[in-house]
Amino acid sequence: MKKIIQTDKAPAAIGPYSQAVEINGMLFVSGQIPIDPATGNLVEGDIKIQTEQVMQNIIAILDAAGYTLDEVVKSTCLLDDMDNFAAMNEVYNKYYSDKRPARAAYGVSKLPKGAMIEIETIAVK
Question: Which one of 38, 56, 101, 112 has the minimum C-beta count within 10 Å?
């Protein structure tokens, strides 16, 4: 049975989607952009600051569903500028240094609200 995951510790969905959906021991976390859940605003700063916020949003959603970063098996990173790839990796690596999930990274022309990064994640129990 499909279970919708929602937490106030991560940004509310800005469209017709859920923060995450759990089904059959798998958690699908919707793409997270660097919105501060306390203010609802995009965080200001460089790609490292924005990546930190995205990761904190993902952790909050994982936690609300009873998952951890160790259970993440796949991430997809969308960057509005591939020149930010190395700096994004520096931050990302702090969170996944031992049990790295599979990952894809794409350069895109534009992200919601002018974000520099968006990351979606899949975790499995």
Answer: 38
Ranges of beta strands (E only) in the chain are 3-5, 20-23, 26-32, 35-36, 41-42, 72-79, 102-107, 117-124
124: tokens are 């499995």
Q: How far is CA 48 from CA 54, 78, 88, in A?
A: 10, 14, 6
Provide the CATH topology of domain 3-124.
60s Ribosomal Protein L30; Chain: A; (3.30.1330)
Beta-carbon count within 10 A of 43 CB: 16
- pTM assigned to the model: 0.96
Structure confidence by residue, pLDDT tens digits, 6-57: 999 999 988 899 999 999 999 999 999 999 999 999 999 999 999 999 999 9
